Amino acid sequence: MTVSADEYLKRILLSPVYDVAVNSDLQKLDKLSAALGNEIWLKREDQQPVKSFKLRGAYNKLSQLSDAQLQAGVVASSAGNHAQGVAYSAKRKKIKATIVMPETAPDIKVEAVRSLGGEYANVVLHGTSFDQAKEEAARLSQVHGYTMVAPFDDPDVIAGQGTIARELLEQNPDLDTLFIAVGGGGLIAGISVFLKHLKPDLKIIAVESAESACLAAAMQAGVPVPLNHVGIFADGVAVKIIGEEPFRLCKQYVDEVMSVSTDEICAAIKDIFDDTRVIAEPAGALSVAGIRKYLQANPELKGRKFGGILCGANINFHTLRYVSERCELGEQKEAVMAVKIPERKGAFREFCESLGGRAITEFNYRYSTAGEAHIFVGIKLREGEKEYAQLAAGLTDKGYQCFNLSNNEMAKLHVRYMVGGRPPCLLNEKLFSFEFPEQPGALKNFLDTLGENWNITLFHYRNHGAAEGLVLAGFDIKDEHRAEFDQHLAKLGYQYEEQTDNPAYKFFLSEVDGLFD
């Protein structure tokens, strides 16, 4: 169904969404604005009762249904936020809603749907993707006569999302550029059709996850086309094919399409938290990730007014572990690399000295051969890629072989946790865990204090920003030297504990598997 621009404006202006939705704040991000040299404004859709903008479109759609349609009930498919919007709206309208969600949907969203809809919401988990859930919802609609409440490809849903545009224009009519997240396209379609008619000089930039860039694919093909695969980290935009009607509007009103990586999304979640103390979900942080990336690519832009939309804050708590691990890579404040160093006493300390005082965020090592060691190391950066290039050149000049892994997804996701294994030959290895005060140069100070009397055979360190640094280290200690080693440890002043008999060590890292003996 094609709707004219004038009709969209009318539907947006007359939408009854404020029966349930709030006029969310447009907040200036002071810290990010100072860092980027431009005014950054964020529309806080996390303030909605369902913690996302999806309530607007869902309620507007239900408000346009006939009494007969309401009595028969509705069905919707969603990865989470649209489901919550439909469930909340159904409860307010006192009608039955069947919500089909993929089995991969975060628990927090599944439970929220059940809670928000109460007795009016029936949750059905089906398939492993949004598209499979969508197919099941369509089947239920045909079998039971339910009205389908589409998450994005519906003019009434699009008009409901477009009410954000009216608020934006009232709150800050001077925005130069607006960045909007894209999944199925309903949000950007509704906002752009309204704003481009009332303020055509406003630049609108679509921001997609690189793992689900369905709008870019459609722009290239000229028509919506399905992606072969979508990543589910940013589950709120994990859509294989953009909606027909949103795409029609995007072609007409969107000025530019860009994509951001997972690391850049994680960095944006941190940016938002630093300014608002709100934890955005990955899809909710897309616009800020886009702003940061856009300004990094256009450093000459200063004093402009950029807007973004925090479109959701329904994050699974356990996802925060991953976000915390990756955000500094996304900000280019950390680099991870593979380095070859000599296998001899003092090599660790010499390598630390070669870093020129830079903080080490991670250090993984396992004895490999008698001649050389392969390490996985993370380095704190202040000037991004430029500083890394200088660091790599300096290491090369000192005879080290190194390789940048900062953009290697497999290395960041898996290999960093797998560096290790059993040594290739028998060692007199003893394993210890250490704690020491975390401060600039802490790891180098630890190694200096430790000394060079015993060869290190295993080493793992990760700086998590806590007050205490944690190290797991193995040493090649002959029995006749054990008493001397113990005396040395006692003089160091660090808290430590021997882990040689730890079953995890015996099973995965020891040269002899003694776990089941």
Describe the fold and architecture:
With 517 residues, the protein is α/β, with parallel strands linked by helices. Helix content is 41%, strand content 21%. The protein contains 20 helices and 18 strands. The chain has helices spanning 5-14, 30-36, 54-63, 67-72, 81-93, 107-117, 130-144, 155-171, 186-198, 214-221, 244-253, 262-276, 286-297, 319-330, 347-354, 384-397, 409-413, 442-450, 482-492, 503-508; strands at residues 26-28, 39-44, 74-77, 97-101, 121-125, 147-148, 177-181, 203-209, 256-260, 305-310, 334-342, 360-366, 372-380, 401-404, 429-437, 456-462, 468-476, 495-498. It has an eight-stranded antiparallel beta sheet with strand order 14-11-13-12-16-17-15-18. The longest helix has 17 residues, at 155-171. 45% of the residues are buried. The model has no long low-confidence stretch (mean pLDDT 87).
Strand content: 15-25%
Separate helix tally: 20
Work out the radius of gyration.
27 Å
By helix and strand content, what is the structural category? alpha/beta
Gap from first CA to last CA: 71 Å
- Which word captures the global form? elongated
Helix content: 40-55%
Instruction: Please give the number of β-strands.
Output: 18
Low-confidence stretches: none
Strand ordering within the main sheet? 14-11-13-12-16-17-15-18
The description of the largest β-sheet is: 8 strands, antiparallel
Q: What's the rounded overall pLDDT mean? A: 87
Secondary structure layout:
Blueprint: H1 5-14, E1 26-28, H2 30-36, E2 39-44, H3 54-63, H4 67-72, E3 74-77, H5 81-93, E4 97-101, H6 107-117, E5 121-125, H7 130-144, E6 147-148, H8 155-171, E7 177-181, H9 186-198, E8 203-209, H10 214-221, H11 244-253, E9 256-260, H12 262-276, H13 286-297, E10 305-310, H14 319-330, E11 334-342, H15 347-354, E12 360-366, E13 372-380, H16 384-397, E14 401-404, H17 409-413, E15 429-437, H18 442-450, E16 456-462, E17 468-476, H19 482-492, E18 495-498, H20 503-508
Parallel strand pairs: 2-10, 3-4, 3-6, 4-5, 7-8, 7-10, 8-9
Antiparallel strand pairs: 1-2, 11-13, 11-14, 12-13, 12-16, 15-17, 15-18, 16-17
Helix pairs in contact: 1-8, 1-9, 3-5, 3-8, 5-6, 8-9, 9-11, 12-13, 12-14, 15-18
